Amino acid sequence: MLHRRTVGDVMTEEVITLRPDTPFQEIASLLDANDIAAAPVIDDEGAPVGVVSASDVLRHETGMPDPQGQDGNDERAWGKARARTAGALMSSPVFTARADWTIPRAARELRRRHVKQLPVVGDHGLLTGIVSRSDLLNVFIRSDVEIRGEIERDVLGRILGLEEGSVAVEVQEGAVTLRGHVPEPRLVPVVVGLCQGVDGVVAVDAHLVAARTD
């Protein structure tokens, strides 16, 4: 089987974290110094209990419920605008991911929750990393050389056991072109399907001839 990258493969393991009693000025300094858009808030055990984002900081600085300074009647939003600690400023409950999630699953969760990052937790609910939209996008922004190497090594060689050189692989901006021959007709759609499953592949154009037609 192909190795499909998971959240655990792309997440950041060294996470900048906050505590519920972390003061506002320290929060702003940490986000700025580390050039991050958000940081998880963890409890004494290391379990995430919320997330503080740059938007929360801006909301606080404007003294209004949202960064644009528009009026609002949401009591929670006004409370965050007056917050002095991470516990009062954070968004909660926190939505989390698991290290064994597939990249598409994590992407769907980010979209469904309308967030830009997800803390990653282990079996006991403790923080093990954080995954962002950019982490997921990097999976698909692979060089043509990487993609070609994986197809030749893993798809054609390790999985299908095809003779080296029987199928020529060209990759241009993620689009794969296959030329050559395979032992039997049923392998043509198999080769195409496996190549489409390689991370970073955007299309597969197969010009394959089957050696046997019976």
TrEMBL record:
Name the domain of life.
Bacteria
- Locate the BON domain: which residues? 143-212
Which CDD domains does its entry note? CBS_pair_BON_assoc (cd04586)
Q: What is this protein called?
A: CBS domain-containing protein
Q: Which PROSITE patterns does this entry report, sorted A to Z? A: BON, CBS
Please tell me whether the keyword Mitochondrion is annotated for this protein.
no
* SUPFAM superfamilies named in the record: CBS-domain pair
Q: What keywords is this UniProt entry annotated with?
A: CBS domain
User: Where in this chain does the record put each CBS domain?
Assistant: 11-68, 90-147
Q: Which Pfam families match?
A: BON (PF04972), CBS (PF00571)
Q: Which organism is it from?
A: Streptomyces carpinensis
